[in-house]
């Protein structure tokens, strides 16, 4: 299961020693509901090597504003606390796997 990331804990998550993948989503977003199960699978697949989290855009305006999230789902990929890649919109699991593998 993906980690719940909020305005309060995101800086701790990003400053850890592992790469981070954040899924920006909302309950009302159809494409987000398609991507959600894939994100949860990836969290299980990469447990221990990559932190995979979900950010509810309706409840966490600070992090949404910080990264200029305008469309959801948006998935951001971080390495060493720095944003290195992103995926806007729904995509196949293989797209996410390739991007995550590039972080490792």
Give a structural overview:
- With 104 residues, the protein is of the alpha/beta class.
- The protein has one domain (3-103): 3-Layer(aba) Sandwich (Glutaredoxin).
- Helix content is 37%, strand content 26%.
- Strands 1-3-2-4-5 form a five-stranded mixed sheet, covered by helices on one side.
- The protein is globular.
In short:
With 104 residues, the protein is of the alpha/beta class. The protein is built from 4 helices and 5 strands.
Key attributes of the depicted protein:
alpha/beta, five-stranded mixed beta sheet, 104 residues, Glutaredoxin
Structural class: alpha/beta
Reading off the top of the CATH hierarchy, the class is best stated as: Alpha Beta
| Count of the domains | 1
Number of strands: 5
- The CATH homologous superfamily corresponds to Glutaredoxin
CATH topology: Glutaredoxin
Spans of at least 5 consecutive residues whose pLDDT stays below 50 are none
Question: What count of helical segments does DSSP give?
Answer: 4
What order do the strands of the largest sheet run in, or round the barrel if closed? 1-3-2-4-5
């Amino acid at each position: 299961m993906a980690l719940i990331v909020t305005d309060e804990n995101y800086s701790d998550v990003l400053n850890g020693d592992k790469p981070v993948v954040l899924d920006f989503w909302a309950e009302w977003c159809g494409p987000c509901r398609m991507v959600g199960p894939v994100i949860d699978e990836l969290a299980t697949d990469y447990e221990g090597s990559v932190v995979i989290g979900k950010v509810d855009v309706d409840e966490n305006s600070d992090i949404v504003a910080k990264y200029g999230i305008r469309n959801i789902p948006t998935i951001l990929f971080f390495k060493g606390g720095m944003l290195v890649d992103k995926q806007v919109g729904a995509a196949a699991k293989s797209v996410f796997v390739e991007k995550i593998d590039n972080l490792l």
